[in-house]
Write a structure and sequence with these properties.
Structural class: alpha+beta
Order of helices and strands: EEHEHEHHEEHEEEEEEEEHEEHEE
Radius of gyration: 23 Å
Distance between the termini: 27 Å
Strand content: 15-25%
Helix content: 10-25%
Shape: globular
Number of helices: 7
Number of strands: 18
Length: 502
């Protein structure tokens, strides 16, 4: 795909796109690694709704690049901007898990971590309800919001939106391998979409192969948050670039127009005007979550749990252990990739390859009596056994250490949660890292992903040494191999879900 011209630095009401010029790199030692993020001195009560943390961020809130210390040095600049990316991740996590009203919007009368019937993300659409069989249509957005739902403190079973049926969850990780916990039970996975992402898929009929074939014939112009014009006439991103392009998060009431000679596909000699019109919305957000089946031996006060119905009509309780947040923010249209985990999942690996064991923790995916590196991160099941066959637990260790700057931000946010909601289950979850494009282009996969490797021990258990969210997802295509695509497929904007339609 052709690039839309090499950009330098755009300024959007004090916010800087991450696309950088070649800065004439210096050899000075980076000095930004220990610069604390902006809020560290303020100690804002993030649990109190008056401070607005229930609002999903739509921007990384980057400073003007010239205001960043030692910005000419790429290593130093990356270290500084990583703090903004990690802060963005935590704000997204808080907004997603904020108590919700019946309409699915955050309840601004409640505090983060307080007891509530449901959180915001529980009103989002599961991928299993969005991508349907041929000749069917997805469930409407208001499905399940007020029906068959019961408070957390009730003894009733919930058949609720995020996991409408137990058998709708996936039981394989990113490598299509099952993950067995220390209780010998499979970890469960679920993907779901916010309203912006859902609307894009539904309006484009991208939820089925038949709809996708219609999409590439008509190329409807559906993208919001980013408008392209040529000769003062609007151009559809989808048709112009032969791709899908999910709604982009935006900075409120900001508009920027870049005028110049741009290279567009099939029109190499024309002068083009590219205008970027921004509207106010959080952009598309797609989540992947991991859940454990809880047992009487588990400390449920340390987990966000839900009761669900299984096929035979009986009920089980599941606890959240991992979450990927993929968020199409205004400055990074290649999405921002955030990953969180429960603190009891697994220990970190020491320099000698052994596990650094915390004797006070009961790990979900690690047996403290076995510290043999030869057994670490080896799949114990390569296929699903659903007939009651005994399963051998995996011995999971975190290979890549969480960055020191990220741990500082974790300490800040977790400290505030403990301070203001000291019984909250959310104090037992932490950010593992945030990957973002240091050198993005508006309409291509971008380059120079930061950090280069990022892995969740639950969601990328068995490929931690090579895991890169953006590197993997940049290859995502839809209608791959379909006759209509001439065997090559079309760019699916990093979203693999479009490739698996029926």
């Amino acid at each position: 795909m052709k690039r839309l011209g090499k950009a330098t630095i755009y300024f959007l009401t004090g916010i800087t796109l991450l696309t950088m010029v070649n800065c004439g790199l210096k050899t000075t030692k980076p000095d930004n690694k220990n610069i604390l993020f902006q809020e560290s001195a303020d100690m804002i009560d993030i649990t109190n709704p008056v401070n607005g943390y229930y609002k999903m961020p739509n921007s990384l809130a980057l400073p003007n690049v010239t205001k960043i210390p030692n910005y000419q040095n790429n290593d130093s600049l990356k270290a500084f901007l990583q703090n903004f990316a990690d802060t963005f991740s935590w704000r997204s996590f808080i907004a997603l898990n904020w108590p919700a009203n019946e309409d699915g919007f955050p309840d601004s009368t409640k505090t983060f971590g307080s007891e509530s019937d449901f959180t915001v993300l529980e009103h989002w659409m599961p991928g299993t309800n969005l991508f349907v069989d041929s000749n069917q249509v997805p469930q409407e957005w208001n499905y399940g919001i007020s029906e068959n739902q019961h408070p957390l403190n009730s003894n009733k079973t919930t058949d609720f939106r995020i996991i409408p049926k137990f058998d709708s969850l996936d039981k394989s990780d990113a490598e299509n391998l099952p993950l067995v916990d220390q209780n010998g039970k499979y970890t469960l996975f679920q993907i779901f979409y916010n309203r912006q992402a859902y609307d894009y898929v539904v309006k484009g009929k991208l939820y089925s192969k038949k709809g996708q074939q219609e999409f590439v014939k008509n190329w409807p112009s559906l993208t919001e948050g980013l408008k392209v014009t040529k000769d003062e006439k609007p151009l559809g991103i989808e048709e112009t670039f032969k791709r899908v392009y999910f709604t982009v998060g935006t900075t409120k009431d900001s508009t920027i127009t870049k005028t110049g000679r741009e290279i567009l596909p099939d029109d190499k000699d024309s002068s083009a005007v590219v205008a970027f019109k921004f509207i106010s919305n959080p952009g598309s957000v797609i989540l992947k979550t991991g859940w454990r089946i809880m047992t009487p031996n588990d400390d449920k006060k340390r987990y966000y749990t839900r009761k669900v119905i299984i096929k035979n009509g009986s009920e089980i309780e599941i606890g959240l252990v991992a979450m990927h947040i993929t968020h199409k923010a205004s400055e990074a249209t290649q999405w921002v990739w955030s990953t969180f985990e429960h603190v009891d999942n697994a220990p970190e690996m020491a320099a000698d390859g052994s596990a650094i064991i915390d004797a006070q923790k009961n790990y979900s995916y690690f047996n403290k009596n076995n510290n043999d590196p030869a057994t670490f991160n080896i799949p114990t099941d390569t296929s699903l056994f659903l007939d009651g066959t005994p399963r051998k637990p995996a011995q999971v260790v975190r290979v890549n250490k969480v960055e020191e700057s990220t741990e500082k931000i974790n300490a800040y946010y977790l400290g505030l949660i403990k301070k203001y909601e000291h019984e909250s289950v959310w104090q037992y979850y932490k950010l593992i890292g945030t990957q973002w494009p240091f050198d993005p282009d508006l309409l291509t996969p971008g380059r120079n992903y930061t950090p280069e490797i990022l892995a969740n021990t639950v969601l990328e258990t068995f490929n931690q040494t090579t895991s890169s969210c953006m590197d993997c997802h940049s290859n995502a295509k839809f209608l791959y191999g379909d006759p209509a695509s001439r065997g090559y497929g079309y760019n699916s904007d990093f979203i693999w879900g479009l490739a698996n339609v029926k």
